[in-house]
């Protein structure tokens, strides 16, 4: 990565998260299909719709700020998605896999929260007034998705996975 200015760094980071979001639009339907928990599948489906809107918001930032994104692949998201796919491949479908899917999804959300928080700080510093509300909206959605996943994990998913393990060892 060659970044000589804050604007270069902003463009690089925006290009990276754009790639991440595009990759996620392909991974979320797989995660929804792998889940046996209808609430979890609905969270994945709902977040897919949000993610598609987030890609559109990035397009609006690019247009409003007259930027040109770099063609690149977000290797961090690629790794997180690969890790989630390994869970799908290696864990029997059921409550334990549902708990693992929540874990994988929260890792993704935390990466996105960090990315959008940083982009928002950069946009403020660069005076990109048009970008700020768009990035704020996306950051809020990412935080909300993380909260939904936490509530689902703490409310039932982890408990069901624990009960399955206890039943298997009894």
Automatic annotation (TrEMBL):
Name of the protein this chain belongs to: Ferritin-like domain-containing protein
Coiled coil: none
A Pfam family this chain is assigned to: DUF892
Gene3D superfamilies assigned: 1.20.1260.10
Domain of life: Bacteria
Taxonomic lineage: Bacteria, Pseudomonadati, Pseudomonadota, Betaproteobacteria, Burkholderiales
InterPro entries, per database record: DUF892_YciF-like, Ferritin-like, Ferritin-like_SF, YciF
PANTHER family: PROTEIN YCIF
Organism: Pigmentiphaga soli
């Amino acid at each position: 990565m060659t970044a000589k200015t804050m604007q270069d760094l902003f463009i690089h980071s925006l290009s990276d998260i754009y790639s991440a979001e595009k990759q996620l639009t392909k991974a979320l339907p797989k995660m929804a299909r792998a889940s046996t928990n209808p609430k979890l599948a609905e969270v994945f489906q709902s977040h897919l719709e949000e993610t598609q809107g987030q890609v559109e918001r990035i397009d609006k930032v690019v247009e409003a700020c007259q930027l040109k994104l770099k063609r690149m692949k977000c290797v961090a998201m690629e790794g997180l998605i690969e890790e989630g796919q390994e869970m799908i491949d290696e864990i029997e479908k059921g409550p334990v896999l549902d708990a693992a899917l929540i874990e994988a999804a929260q890792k993704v959300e935390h990466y996105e929260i960090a990315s959008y928080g940083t982009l928002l700080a950069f946009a403020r510093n660069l005076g990109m007034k048009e970008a700020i509300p768009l990035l704020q909206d996306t950051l809020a959605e990412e935080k909300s998705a993380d909260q939904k996943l936490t509530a689902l994990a703490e409310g039932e998913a982890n408990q069901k996975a624990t009960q399955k393990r206890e039943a298997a060892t009894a």
